[in-house]
Model the fold of this input.
Amino acid sequence: MRYLMRTHATGLIDSIAQPSLDLYNGEIVAFETSKRPVFELVGSMLKKALARLASHERPMPHSDQGWQYRMPAYQRQLRERQLVQSMSRKGNCLDNAAMESFFAVLKSEFFYLNKFDSVDALRDGLADYIHYYNHDRIKLKLKGLSPFSTGLRPWLPS
Done:
């Protein structure tokens, strides 16, 4: 799932964010940005997310039915790691509620509160926000801890 972001300097879509959310602890596992919706945006994010897994771990990646998730290259990366792909039913946004919730938080806590004069400022700010979101921002459902401080990271080797 992608999120389109505009800088204030141009008012145009200047960057597209592609995050990967771990539903176990709410952590953004990997993200990537790009100026255009190209496959490399998703492919690079997936490589980053897969690199964090131990060889025996088999999470189930879930996405909407976007063209990038149906591409043979994306599906091949999943098959090579023996992962089963899950996709939303057509027209059912409820399947993506967790990701939509993250985007709502991202907009209210980061995007609407800042002005970005350049694409680089936007990307740097996004990286800083995701670090804050993972390491410092507490969640009630995690009993007042941040996703990273919970120790609930099953993808880390023991």
In short: Helices lie at 39-51, 72-80, 97-111, 119-135. Residues 3-49+97-150 form one domain. The first helix runs from residue 39 to 51.
